[in-house]
Amino acid sequence: MTPADAFLILDFLAGNRLIPHSVFTTLLASLPSVSPHTSPRLRAGLALRALDSALSISESSEMDAPTLLRKARAVLADPDLAPFFPQHLAAPASADDAPAAAVAHLNRLLDVEWASLPPSSLEIAAERIVGSQALHSWANADHAQRSKLRLLAEKYSTSLYQFYSPLAVSAVGESTALEILDTLQRPDASTNHPGTLPQVDNAPETNSASHCAQQNDGAKSGLVKQNAEADRPQQDSTRHQQDSVQGASNSQLKESSVTMESIRGTGPDITGFMEEATPRVARQFAPDNIKNHQVTGSKRSLMERNPTASTYEWDGSDSEGKRPAAKRRLPIFERTAKPSPTAAHKTRKKWSEKQEKTLLEGVEKYGKGNWKDIKMAYPDVFEDRSTVDLKDKFRNLERHLCA
DNA sequence: ATAGGGCTAGCC
DNA sequence: GGCTAGCCCTAT
Questions:
Q1: Where is this region: Disordered (predicted)?
Q2: Does the nearest atom of strand C lie within 7 Å of A346's Cβ?
Q3: Do A199 and A254 have their domain in common?
Q4: Nearest residue for B7, CA–C1'
Q5: What is the domain count for chain A?
């Protein structure tokens, strides 16, 4: 799981009051550590959670109001949390009210604070994807925005699966969870059984040390030595989580295309999924290639006729004189400037030592092949490097290491 | 998104 | 001319 994913999930869990503290801490233990300092909402959620916890009376032990108040004051005075409590919340706790009244007052204020906590990024994304505004969001989104929505859809379904355990469901409410999953999984829900965790498979070795071993049994590298035993289970679980989500993601996309069906043909730009295919199709004329580039989720094959398409006919003869000039004009798109075939190559840029070291560190940490995660983990170092650059560079380094 | 083959600028 | 690092292209 990437730090970004972990943040999305933690942000959602921490700010959800329905999730009991015991459940929250259990789930927290299975997440990679996330710095709460990146998000005011997350910090506020954690602060409210701490205060909630201090004010809640556990079933087994009876606690008197003074004790509760003392605990609450301790939380409110915690230097890590204090900045995230509003002034008026801290005030009654230090007043000389009767403890019971102060506790009751605090609880009321706490209710208000919980209610005013903004929705998490995950919930916002979910609403945009599967909520009532989904269609509206899509219709109003430009190309870049749609790409983001697609990414969010996948991220959201991944997150759901990663925490789709009976524990989490009991916390957020079974009906809600099932409803969301149902929406995400339709129409082929049968391929993904909610609550059934994917089986662990034997993922191929992904660490570079083993890669070297395959090529040269004696090769040993101190530079890229992955703690394979410790890392592999995590990688495997990540991998099969991704695998298990695949079905949901596809369904999600299918679902999107189904909803898009309602506006297909009625307005411009209803073939959002096809936009991505266009540049490639322009370069590749083989029918097989065109078929391969049908974008997942698009119901109509590119080989099928598009009812909204215009056609230009050319009879192949050069007898231009027989036709009016207007008819002889080439379709507009053929007259537009094509990008130069010798498109500007990126200027060759030598990899710095720091970049190399960071790349090796990234591979050690996230595993070979997780170039996107590595790039995201060191955005400043790899600012001018693409994931493909990372992959190429590592391949290059590997050659040296394995030589 | 990633893997792997291919191309080529730049160095010797 | 050969080699290689860095980059591109294509398939999956």
A1: 187-272
A2: yes
A3: yes
A4: A345
A5: 3
Q: Is residue A152 in a domain?
A: yes
Is strand C in 7 Å reach of the CB of A283?
yes
Is the Cα dihedral A41, A45, A46, A50 positive or negative? positive
Per-residue pLDDT of chain A (403 residues; tens, 9 = 90+): 666 667 777 778 788 887 777 777 777 777 777 666 667 777 788 888 888 888 776 544 556 777 777 888 888 888 777 777 777 776 655 555 677 777 777 777 778 888 878 777 777 666 555 555 554 554 455 555 555 555 554 444 444 434 433 333 334 444 444 444 444 444 333 333 333 323 333 333 334 344 454 444 333 333 333 333 333 333 333 333 333 333 333 333 333 332 222 323 333 332 332 233 223 222 222 233 323 333 333 333 333 334 333 333 333 333 333 344 444 343 333 333 333 344 566 788 999 999 999 999 999 999 999 999 999 999 999 999 999 999 999 999 988 876 6
User: Do both A90 and A185 map to the same domain?
Assistant: no
Residue A361's domain is classified under what CATH number? 1.10.10
Residue A249 and residue A141 share a domain: yes
How buried is A262 (Cβ within 10 angstroms: 0-12 exposed, 13-18 middle, 19+ buried)? exposed
Is this model's pTM higher than 0.70 or not?
no
Supply the range of the domain harboring residue A242: 123-261
| Chain B nucleotides near the protein (CB, 7 A) | 1-6, 9-10
Protein A354 CA to nucleic acid C7 C1', in Å?
20
Q: Is the same domain home to A142 and A97?
A: no
- Report chain C positions within 7 A of protein CB atoms: 5-12
Protein residue with the closest CA to the C1' atom of nucleotide B5: A392
How many Å does it take to go from CA A349 to C1' B11? 14
